[in-house]
Amino acid sequence: MDTLIVGAGFAGAVTARELAEAGERVLVVDKRPHVAGNAYDRLDAAGVLVHEYGPHIFHTNSESVFGWLSRFTTWRPYEHRVLAVPDASTGRAYPLPINRTTINSLYGLDLDEAGVAAFLERVREPREPIRTSEDVVLNSVGRDLCERFFRGYTRKQWGLDLSELAGGVAARIPTRTNDDDRYFSDRYQAMPAEGYTRLFERLLAHPNIEVRTGVEYAAVAGLDRRRTVFTGPIDEFYGRRFGALPYRSLRFEHEHLAGTTQLQPVGTVNYPNDHAWTRITEFKHLSGQQHAGSSVVREIPQDMDAPGAEPYYPIPNPANEALYKRYEALAEAETEVFFLGRLAQYRYYNMDQVVAAALALARRLTAQRRAQPAP
Asked: Where does the UDP-galactopyranose mutase C-terminal domain start and stop, copy by copy (predicted)?
């Protein structure tokens, strides 16, 4: 083979397809028994399409990324909406990201857009410089909204306080003065019409690609090849030489509700301050599937020392970034191994960002090969 790719998620599969179309022979291995990585979806026992590892909502502003993926799927237009229940004893739900509806409903006000902007300016706590996620939130919406919607959720999700996380985590969630209740505002928002797994099956269906699932990297590390693209945890690749990079894990509680056609008014409801779970997602909103029952998943964050825990999120703060830099220095010295993806680059990638990075890497590798003189 020319290239061994470790991991059959977006990073590995997109790289594999692009290299295969350039004439390379590619072997893709994944330790899980399926392709699609964390985007893997399946029909549950009741026949409802569910996302095994929590909701994956596709959104992008990149016409090129959306167009490239459109070769392997048709799309169902879908704009994700999220409600948050800051106090489960009342059950009152408010739009998230915070918008005009959130503020008017929460405080019994009737503000227009200018009024909401003035309200936020009045309650915000200016922070300079902005370093942490606490700085971001307090600088944007002030202390009361921070305590109701952000601090508890962050503590559950990351096992850290807002003040212990890099600012980029909270900066992902905007604040709006209008009534736009979409979670994302990207130009392209859609779900693969037949699901992610089917998209990946088409993506990997190329005569130059061989896929082996249920295979650990160690089992194929000795195979002869020109190069390796590794999409797993970078510290694992190097035997945790400098110590384990911290990752946050999740436990997923899937449940089918027979006879319940709809549990929630929107796809996801957050519970920032109550319960062990951070959010509940109802999958029929995402897929548009018609079914007499409904299936949901509760996400319960956990540490990596929990039984069966897998790494899902790099934990961005200065200490962890410094540790990653030591591994990155090893990676930069490699000439035949390339690291790509959320775990390999210790970066909080969205799906479209991973696709763009994979396309860029594959095209760079192809260009390098073509530039080499013929033997």
From this structure: 149-348
